Each structure stands twice: as structure tokens, then as C-alpha cells.
Amino acid sequence: MCSTYSPIPKPFRTVIIGRPSTRKSGVLVRAQVTVAPKSSGLHTLPELPKQVISLNDLQLVEIVEKQSRTGRLFAESEHRKPQFQPAFLDEAYERCRKLCAEYAKTFYLGTLLMTEERQKAIWAIYVWCRRTDELVDGPNATYMSSTVLDRWEERLQDLFDGRPYDMLDAALTDTVFKFPLDIKPFRDMIKGMRMDTRKCRYENFRELYLYCYYVAGTVGLMSVPVMGIAPDSSVSAQGIYNAALYLGIGNQLTNILRDVGEDALRGRVYLPQDELAQFGLSDKDIFSRRVTDGWREFIKQQITRARFYFNMAEDGASHLNKASRWPVWSSLIIYRKILDEIEENDYDNLTKRAYVGRTKKLLTLPLAYSKAFSKAA
After folding, report:
1. In whole angstroms, what is the distance from residue 96 CA to residue 132 CA?
2. 306 or 365: whose pLDDT is higher?
3. What is the pTM of this model?
């Protein structure tokens, strides 16, 4: 099994591609395409890109600026803050807590070190994200339509405007009036759900990266204003948000690798088609559920890329507010262990689902705690 903190074995060479932005700011927007080194094995492996699409590329710089503000602009929302009965809000947050504790046990344990206000906010965000995901992948997914997502997006706008539809929405409404949360990451997550209803193939990694941003990178952008940045952080707010985005990308790439077999049963392939072809593979190889040497080499490269994003996320995790670091480090370490489990299964993610057992998860908590409270790099 590879080390949880496996470094990238060789330097990556980076090619900068880009053109002047069309935005009025005149910022030069460039996408970094970081290319993995060639294998030193018996044969030369195809080079897979690791496109680092910046906040500029995703048009999220303004979101970072808005969510980093406190004081006057944030205080302006106070005059329209809805008034809920304390008992009603207590019950709303308690329901969110129970859902988080049931479905995200290890992450939930990490949230217990946060202040009470931050705990409640993270639980509310988690529950909204889970409900959004279940529209497409939950038990009622057969009733999914664009109309359902349109209505869900209208509800999102309503709760940001102080008009929640139900008790769980009310918890998030209270949260968005306590913390400087922008609606765009939430809308972008719904956009990711729309992609799932009409797209089940991705031609290249750039397409897949954007999907990963919509369904997972957005969670990091939602969470940073709640978790907070350490007052003495030497990393800029944009650097922290980039790291949060990369953690989401790494998590989703790991989910994809873990669930290849299950997704294939539903006719979905979340692996870049051009990269499959580079290794002499196609959808047919996935649907046949046969693990070949070519498949193993392909998955090795995909795992290397996922670890690349986890490595990039580390510094940001160490510069969050100290009380918020533990759940982030727990998530990062456990997801890395999923990659380790795929390797332990001899890269068979077609007939086996890599799983980190409860005991192993619990054993990661002390390590995550140590990383969270060590001196930030």
C-alpha cells in the first residue's frame, strides 16, 4: 500500500497556455496544464494532463472577494434577515446534525471541534448539498427532470432571500445571513446535477475537471467562509480558495475511480474518452468488467492525478482557522486511503468497490488531528 502522503515521484513540467481575458479588468487568464513525467518502466506510458484551472478561469475571483468581506457590506444584509423562533432554528439545526452524523460519520466527528455556530453552518451546507445530489442519484431519481431542478434552483434563491421552503432550508437561510456566502457556488452545484441528467461521457480531462468543479469543488467554496482563514495565515485568500477547490477536485476524481463499476451498470463513464484511447481502451473494456494490464496502467495514472490535487490542497488545509482544520484533514486523508485501497485491490475497480473500513477511518483521526494542529507550513 502506498503511503498516505505519497509525494509525486518526479517533477512535473508545466505548460502555460492562455490569452487575455475578455473581462473588463484586463486580467490575463491562463490555464496551467501540468504534465506527468514518463514512466521509467518497461514501456513508455502516455502523458496525462493535470489541468489546473484557476479561479480566474472559472470566473470565481469576485466570489472570493465577496466571501472574504466582513463589516459594512455584510452588515447591509442584517436589515432583511428573517426572524425565526429560537426553538424552530434549534430543531432545524438538530435535524441537519443528525443527517450529517448518519451519512458523513468521520467528517461529522471532525466538526465537533468547531465553534457551535460554525458546526451548525457546516451541517446546514452539508444537508443542502446532499439533498441536491439525491435529486439525481437518490431513491426518487427516476422522477428527475429539468423542471425539478428549475424548482430546486428557485427554492435556492428563495432561501437566500430569506424565504425558506421547509425546516432544513431554514437552517441554510439562517447560515447565509450569518456568514458571507455567495449564491454562485450553490447554483453551480445545481448546474452539475443538470450535467448528470444529459451527459454521461467526457471527451477529455478539461471537460471532466469542470464537472468535478460543479459537483464537488463548489463545496469547498461554500465552506471556506464558514471555516474561516487563520488570522496569521501567510497564504492569500485566493490561495486558500484554490486549495479548497483542489480538495474538491481530488475527492471527486477519487469518487469516480472508486465507482467505475457501479457507474458502468448505469451506463455512465466518467473517465476521459481520449485518455482511455491513449491506453488502447474504450467503453467496451469497462462494460466487460475485465481487468487487464492496460487497465491497471491506466488506473495507476488516474490515481497519480488524484493525488496531485490532494497534494495541492494540503497547504490550504493548514491555513484554515485552527478549529476548522480537523474535518478537512480527515476528509483529505481518508480519500487518499480510498486510492490506496484501489491499489490493494490490484486496480480492480470494475468488479470491486474500494472501501475504507470504520476501524481504518477511526485510526486516521489522530493523524488528522496532529496535522490540523501542527504549525502551519
Report:
1. 14
2. 306
3. 0.82
